[in-house]
Amino acid sequence: MRTPTTPTTLTAPPSLGPLLARGALRSPFKHPRPGVSFSGAGHRLVLPGLRVDPTRLAAYERVCGFPTGEDSLPLTYPHVLGFPLAMSILSGRDFPLPLLGLVHTSIEITRRAALAPAGIYELSVHVEELAAHRRGTEAVVVTGLRQGGDIVWESTSRYLGRHATEAAPAAREPEPGPLPVLDEWRLAADVGRRYGAASGDRNPIHLHPLTARLFGFPRAIAHGMWTVARCLAAHGVPQRARVRADFRAPVLLPGTVSFASDGARFALYGTGDSARIHVTGRVDPLPGPLSRTGPAHAP
Asked: Residue 119, Cβ neighbours under 10 Å: how many?
């Protein structure tokens, strides 16, 4: 059983730029292997008195397709607020997986109440555990938002660090049947730059073809969290809901994708010759009064 540790309380969000640079510089010196452990698992970073910047929020809403000026934060926005704290942990000297090459494989979000943009919140982030994966090791990162002492929003993200393993390949689950396509989106080349400016996540694989090629991509790729946010903006989400999304394949920019949904499940498909599955997910309402936010128009 893990011994609880005293949380580290921050006075301001850490700056993302230096954290990403620190993580990049340390990555070549980290060589993960099966059974790797993390002594900092369970230790929380806490940021009390958090207020949302309305200018950044509006930029995020526009690039993701959410309506602006609503009385509740988009479901995915607290992930942006917690991202600097997560990077502070994942770029640390004692974190055993290299930040460069970490792949965001899935996210599960639970929202228990509407989140007022003008509210004051306490934000916390910690690595729950390192979990064995057939392709390496996954860091399970938990982000929470509290108001008045109550947890109102929580997410669990999994980040995969690839390395050689001795695990047998897992049996592939049968693919769910295709969902009805509701819309087709033409994505501009600057989506990654626009989302990076709004979220602070300026990973070079999302910004320009030249920097993306350094990491093996033919063109810049969309942020995974942008693809989920864009899907949810079109899908609509109850104020009390649980959302699960799995990132299946990167979305190249510029490009064209198809949004599909059956009312509960959603997906983002490629088009034409590259009709691959990029994102799959599901929206489930939580018991209690529901207030559904309607679909938005394309950005």
From this structure: 16
CA–CA distance, 207 with 169 (Å, rounded to integer): 33
- Selection from 155, 183, 154 nearest residue 65 by Cα: 183
- Alpha-carbon distance 299 to 286, whole Å? 29
**Residue-level length of the chain:** 299
CA–CA separation, 239 and 276 (whole Å): 31
Q: Which residues contact 1 (CB under 8 A, 6 or more apart)?
A: none
Q: What global pTM score does this model have?
A: 0.90
Distance of alpha carbon 225 from alpha carbon 268, whole angstroms = 13
Structure tokens at 111: 């929202």
Cα diameter, the chain: 53
C-beta of residue 229 within 8 angstroms of C-beta of residue 76: yes
List helix spans (H) across the chain.
16-26, 54-64, 77-90, 191-199, 209-213, 224-235
Q: What angle do CA 100, 103, 104 make, to 5 degrees?
A: 130
Q: What pLDDT score was predicted for residue 178?
A: 84
Where residue 41 falls among pLDDT bands split at 50, 70, 90? very high
Q: How many Å apart are CA 250 and CA 252, to the nearest integer?
A: 6
Percent of the chain with pLDDT strictly greater than 90: 78
Contact 248, 227 (CB under 8 A): no
Encoding tokens for residue 215? Answer: 């990491």
